[in-house]
Amino acid sequence: MPQPVLRREAHLMATDPSSTRFEKLFDAMDTDHDGTLKAGTFQTLVRRLGRSGGMQKSNLEQSYHEFWTELMRHHGDGGYSLSKQQFVQALQALAKDTSTRGLIERMSNTVFDMANTGFEDKLSKDEFVRFFKAAGGSDDAAALAAFTELDYDGNGAISRADFNRGMKTYMFAPASSTNSSIVFGAV
Prior knowledge:
Elements: H1 17-29, E1 36-38, H2 39-50, H3 57-75, E2 81-83, H4 84-96, H5 101-115, E3 122-123, H6 125-134, H7 140-150, E4 158-159, H8 160-172
Antiparallel strand pairs: 1-2, 3-4
């Protein structure tokens, strides 16, 4: 089993593109605005995403539980919650840890399956808009902009490969837009 990655204190937030992305993600996930994320934060997201009508929520709960466990392992202090700074540092460490690549892809696939109500291995615009709103997105225009960004091949549907590519870009690319964070909810 990989050893915990010890956290390093950062004196400045948002000094690079990933910090900015991950700070926005924290803000979107901190729905009670208490300045911390806890395991229960993901339960709120699971409930919201469950409204989109795809696969069973238990698979999504398991996926987010694994993700939370890895975040806490990468944070390394044994606590039960993460401040914004701790979350950003843990997510950056997780993104650099090549052993977590499979986890990110599994999580992306699980969320894709939740959104995929037609079971055609692609998301139509209607499916994506419904999913985007369930994930906390505000309106059709924002959903359609995210859809266009994630439809890498421009065929009018988001394939599983498109969806996974968006998630990998969000997590691992030095500079990335926020729309591909849809796995974590609309940011």
